[in-house]
Automatic annotation (TrEMBL):
It is an enzyme of class 2 (transferase). HAMAP family: RF_methyltr_PrmC. Residues 102-196 form the Methyltransferase small domain. It comes from marine metagenome. It catalyses: L-glutaminyl-[peptide chain release factor] + S-adenosyl-L-methionine = N(5)-methyl-L-glutaminyl-[peptide chain release factor] + S-adenosyl-L-homocysteine + H(+). Its EC number is 2.1.1.297. Keywords: Methyltransferase, S-adenosyl-L-methionine, Transferase. One of its GO terms (molecular function) is nucleic acid binding. This is peptide chain release factor N(5)-glutamine methyltransferase.
Amino acid sequence: MKEFLEWSIGRLNQAGVDSPRMEAEVLFSGALRVGREEIFLRPERVLTEPEKNLLRSFVERRVLREPVAYILRSKEFWSLNFTITPDVLIPRPETEVLVETLLSQNLKKPSELSFRLLDIGTGSGVIAVVAAQEIHNCQVTATDYFPSVLAVAKLNSERHGVSDRVHFVKSNVFSHLSKALYDCIVSNPPYLKTSNLNDLVPDVIDFEPWSALDGGSDGLGFYKQIIPKALNYLKKGGFIILEIGETQANAVTSLFHSTGHYEKINIVQDYSGYDRVVFARKKTNAYG
């Protein structure tokens, strides 16, 4: 196994893949279904021909810049493994900041009352699943426009034992959503400018769904829909948490202020110090 691993590292390095050793180890771990530590503990292990063929396939796919998450059909988020397909955006660590912001709120309610959460554009379902697991008595409505995306999210809800707490709805933002009031609305919407998409690395632009990346000409298209319309779906005093691009804080907070119906509008930075999440609360005297 050691020699095959060294070949894989060299192949990835030759192709200009960042962190070739780490990526080779991850591919080996996924292909052989073993922990990365076993790669070091059993370097003498003899690989079977089917194992070698699978590993060659994985390495060559990565050489062509296919993301590891799509090759392995798996990605870790919040210390949980989620099924990932090319239909969905690969979860990023930055989105955990949105989850942390959600969980940092005082979410305690009387035991007989559920906490109602709306997740717009659920993608792989990572936010919905973690919320259903972490928040007591949480009931999630998770939306997405594409049935293939909802199928992945539903699979992840079943995989993590929360399918009875997450209800999936095919909807373009609020278009096919039944009128109801929620304690909180969350979303990680597409926020890249259309003109910037071609500047992305091949790993992203050639493989991840454009629909999950393209935020329109100014990158704000979805925020312009979500922020005003969310007032019709939020309880008074309910809150909304949105992931944003690192340069969008001023523009997005301005959209909140322009409605006149939100308060406590705050920005949360990610661990690299970039603006990553906007939080706001619906005023108790707001309409709806």
